[in-house]
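Researcher: Next entry in the queue.
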Amino acid sequence: MERIRVCLEAAGIPVSDRQLEMLETYLNMVVERNKVMNLTAITDREEFIEKHLLDSAAPLFSSNQLQKLFLPYENETPVGSVRLIDVGTGAGFPGIPLKILCPSLSVTLLDSLQKRVGFLNEVIDTLELRDITAVHMRAEEGGQAAALRESFDIAVSRAVANLSMLAEYDLPFVRVGGTFLAYKSGEIEEELAKAGHAIRILGGAAEPPVYIELPGTEIRRAFVTIRKTKPTPKGYPRKAGTAKKNPL
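Model: Structure for this entry, 248 residues:
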């Protein structure tokens, strides 16, 4: 647990003993369940801490402008809970670490595989998390569901997919005025430029990428912030598989 504390505090994230215990329990649950189902290729403890826990928490680092998306203040006063959806959450990254470290978040974890959703519900129960829900649904279905469409302040994705596809999956969930935050790696400017057409069609406007180095590592993470400026047209997201076969 000390390694987790050192990394988070180096990033300016205060963490309680209870939060550390929750992160430790979560790490152990993922590694143990990974023996019987495919949750992650990363099972080495140090690598897990860096590439899953610390990486998931990166937007909360005090040294970057992304933090205000999750902790909205006006005149140094909290202005209420932020509704977040983690699209294609898999084993719960980044949604569960974000929830543990920022308890005021209202979180929905969306995944297309029932077994993973079952595991996420076990994690939620074991950690006694509140105001967090795991939903079994494809992104294409969820983006058209009345209960989910354009109802979140933030959508996040760590999925390995091009930005045009991710925009079609995530932007339909975001309310006008909200944000889609994509976790990416490497230099992202060229990919962002290619996705510009899709982002505009889907009602978004991209901001310059934010690059963050994870404390104590040589890992450099790129974040793309896309503001929702107008409603997404009703035809998006398209049917399952269409965005992958025929990106905008």
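Model: The longest helix spans residues 17-33.
Researcher: Noted, moving on.
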